[in-house]
Write a structure and sequence with these properties.
This protein has about 80 residues and is mainly alpha-helical. The chain has a domain of about 50 residues. Helix 2 packs antiparallel against helix 3. The model has no long low-confidence stretch (mean pLDDT about 85).
Length: about 80
Amino acid sequence: MSSKPTVTQPKSLRAKLKPEVDLGFRWGTMNTALLAAGVALLGAGYLSLSRGSITLAPVLLVVGYCGLIPASLLVRGSGSESGE
């Protein structure tokens, strides 16, 4: 009285994946430069914080975290470079 469950084999995994959609995000040299400047500013901010600066360190950290790092993600690269 026990019936075997029917097992279905999946078709190829490639058929189930959706094609990749280009969202228009390009990572260029300007993005890399802004990110490097943001990381350098964060390093300088933490260094000045360890030395006891209570005015310069917060300014450097806020500009790094809220200014340059988001700008490096939001700036669009040129259309000639290919993104991933």
